[in-house]
Amino acid sequence: MTLKILNLYAGIGGNRKLWTGDIEVTAIENVPEIAKIYQDFFPDDKVIVTDAHQYLIEHYKEFDFIWSSPPCPTHSRINTLLINKPNNPIKPRFPDMKLYEEIIFLKHFAKCRWIVENVRGYYEPLIKPQECGRHYYWANFEIEDFGKDKKVRNDKGSVLKVKMEQRGIIVTDFHGYKGDKRQLINNCVDVEHGLKIFKMVFKEKQEVLI
C-alpha cells in the first residue's frame, strides 16, 4: 500500500532526505527557487509552489501522514537573545500564530498521522509540545527521545560547510540560488531526526495520542 505524505513548508527537504519505501510525497514550498532545489533532490516527488497554510486546509483529508514545519524566526529564542545587542537587525515582532492554528486544526480534524515541527521558542509554548533536541514537536503519535542535536564543529572549515556535509548537500545543489543559503541549511531538520520520526509514524501497536 502506497503511503501518501504531505510535506508542508518543504524547503529543500532536510526532513524528507532519508525517507524510503512505497511512498508518494507531495511537497509544498512557496518560493519557486527553493522548490526547484527540492525538486532536483527528489525528482519523483510532486512539488507545488503555493501557500502551505492554505493548501493544508484544502487537502488535509487526502494524506496518510502530514509533516508541517511552519517558519520559525518569529518564535526562535534569537528574538530575545539579540534584542539588546548593538546593530541588531532583528526588531521586536509578533509571533506568527499560524503555527498554533495548524496544531489546533490538525488535532481536531485530521484523521491521519501528523506532526508540526518548530524550534524551541523564547516563550512558554501555548500548547504543550513533545521536546527533542532543540526542537518542539506537536503530533498525534509518541515521539521517542533521540537525544540532543549533533553539535556542529568548525574544525573542517566554516560552520555552514560542516552543516552542508552533515546534510549531504554540496554547493552545486543550489544552482545559482541568490537567496540566503545559510538560512536554507539552518532551516533543514537534521536528516537523521527526520528518518527516526518517519519510522515512528507507523510503528506497530503505537498508541495514538488524544
Feature tags:
210 residues, seven-stranded mixed β-sheet, globular, Rossmann fold, 7 helices
Plain-language structure description:
The chain has seven helices and seven strands, in the order ββαβαβααβββααα. It is an alpha/beta fold. It has a single domain, classed as 3-Layer(aba) Sandwich (Rossmann fold), CATH 3.40.50. The protein has a seven-stranded mixed beta sheet with strand order 3-2-1-4-5-7-6, with helices on both faces. A hairpin with a 2-residue loop joins β6 and β7. It is globular and about 55 Å long. The two termini are 26 Å apart.
Radius of gyration: 17 Å
CATH topology value: Rossmann fold
Provide the number of structural domains. 1
Largest sheet: 7 strands, mixed
Q: What's the name of the CATH homologous superfamily?
A: Vaccinia Virus protein VP39
Main sheet: which strands, in order across?
A: 3-2-1-4-5-7-6
CATH class: Alpha Beta
Query: How many runs of DSSP E, i.e. beta strands?
Result: 7
The backbone outline, from C-alpha atoms, is globular
Q: Mean of the pLDDT scores?
A: 84
Q: What is the H/E string?
A: EEHEHEHHEEEHHH
* Cα separation of the termini: 26 Å
- State the share of residues found in helices, binned by percent: 25-40%
User: Count the helices. How many?
Assistant: 7
What proportion strand?
Answer: 15-25%
CATH architecture: 3-Layer(aba) Sandwich
Structural class: alpha/beta
